[in-house]
Every structure is written in structure tokens, then in C-alpha cells.
């Protein structure tokens, strides 16, 4: 068995994205997230994700904070549970 067996190449954050954990569902396609940079933000689920990807509390997501309003963000990606565990094992998440 090799060390990288079962390891998948995961989407990593771009320069303007950060890891976040969904802490609260607000309704109206909005959630509260706790970002890896220590900030709580209100994140918006974009239309292209609303019916295709279900986002629940405690999910790990990538968010892109707004340039003009730092306490808000857009969700750009959601990780599956197995992918989130892999990120934790590799030290990307605390």
C-alpha cells in the first residue's frame, strides 16, 4: 500500500478564496460561515449551485470574500465529507 493510495487531488483556494465551515443556515440562499482567517461572514449560495449542490451545516466550503464588504462572501465550492477529512489530515484545516 502506498502512502498516497486513496488520495485525491482536491480543488485548493485561489488567491482571493479562503476555506470556511458553514455554521448556520439563514434561508433565502444565505448561510453564516466561519472562515479560516478567523472572520464570521454571511455567504451567498450562487444560483448555479442552488439546486445542484446541497449545502448543510458543518460543510467545508470555499468562499470568496467581497472586495467592498468584508463581512460578506460568495460560496464557490463545496467539499464532500471525505474530501474535508483529507484536507484536515493534510493540515489545511484546523
TrEMBL record:
CDD domains: S1_IF1A. PROSITE patterns: IF1A, S1_IF1_TYPE. Keywords: Initiation factor, Protein biosynthesis. Residues 6-80 form the S1-like domain. Belongs to the eIF-1A family. It comes from the Archaea. This is Translation initiation factor 1A. GO terms for molecular function: translation initiation factor activity. It holds the Pfam family eIF-1a. The lineage of its organism: Archaea, Methanobacteriati, Methanobacteriota, Stenosarchaea group, Halobacteria. Seems to be required for maximal rate of protein biosynthesis. Enhances ribosome dissociation into subunits and stabilizes the binding of the initiator Met-tRNA(I) to 40 S ribosomal subunits. It comes from Halohasta litorea.
Amino acid at each position: 500500500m502506498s502512502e498516497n493510495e486513496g488520495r485525491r487531488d482536491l480543488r485548493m483556494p485561489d488567491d482571493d478564496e479562503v476555506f470556511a465551515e458553514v455554521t448556520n443556515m439563514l434561508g433565502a440562499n444565505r448561510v453564516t460561515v466561519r472562515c479560516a482567517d478567523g472572520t464570521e461572514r454571511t455567504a451567498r449560495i450562487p444560483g448555479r449551485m442552488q439546486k445542484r449542490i446541497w449545502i448543510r451545516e458543518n460543510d467545508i466550503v470555499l468562499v470568496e470574500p467581497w472586495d467592498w464588504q468584508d463581512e460578506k462572501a460568495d460560496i464557490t465550492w463545496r467539499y464532500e465529507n471525505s474530501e474535508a477529512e483529507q484536507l484536515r489530515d493534510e493540515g489545511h484545516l484546523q
